[in-house]
UniProtKB/TrEMBL annotation:
Protein name stated in the entry: AP-3 complex subunit delta Mu C-terminal domain-containing protein
Source organism of this protein record: Rotaria sordida
Domain AP-3 complex subunit delta Mu C-terminal: 72-150
Family matches, as Pfam families: Mu_AP3
């Protein structure tokens, strides 16, 4: 298991302070969890049990929830200049390489680049014609470097 809720108490229960719930009142409870691996998406599933005291009768119920954390949630936008990006690409510091081909689209290259940057928290380092250098860092300060190209195939 690479993710888990953090228990801040010494027992097996996580206790929260007394909370009054009235209509239109907002209460926030911060739940902390630990993630040991960020190289793949995480699925955190838990059950929260609560009790309500109604006229000296305690009613207990449960709320089950799932939290899906894709790898992009562990990325943060980071600016890097084109020289540092080129040095990173040629240094051998990037330990994993992958290639992905996406079906041709009628969308504008700039629009596609901006969409990818928004969804995956990437920064455009440099854009030349139909190629863009994209960069981000993980929350562990690991570099993520991408070269995004639009290739026209003529058959």
């Amino acid at each position: 298991m690479s993710s888990k809720l953090l228990n801040t108490t010494s027992t097996n229960l996580i206790s929260f302070p007394f909370i009054s719930i009235f209509p239109h009142l907002q209460n926030y409870i911060h739940i902390y969890f630990s993630i040991n691996a960020i190289s793949f998406s995480q699925k955190l599933k838990t059950t929260s049990t609560y009790s309500i005291n109604k006229s000296n009768i305690i009613e207990t119920d449960r709320i089950e929830f799932k939290l899906n954390l894709p790898c992009s949630q562990y990325l943060r936008q980071k600016t890097i200049d084109s020289i540092a990006f080129a040095d990173l690409m040629s240094s051998g510091a990037l330990i994993c390489q992958s290639q992905l081909r996406i079906s041709s689209s009628n969308q504008d290259f700039l629009l596609m680049t901006n969409t990818i940057c928004q969804f995956y928290r990437l920064t455009v380092v440099e854009k030349i014609n139909s190629a863009a250098s994209l960069y981000a860092e993980t929350i562990l300060e690991q570099p993520i470097a991408l070269l995004f190209k639009s290739i026209v195939c003529i058959f």
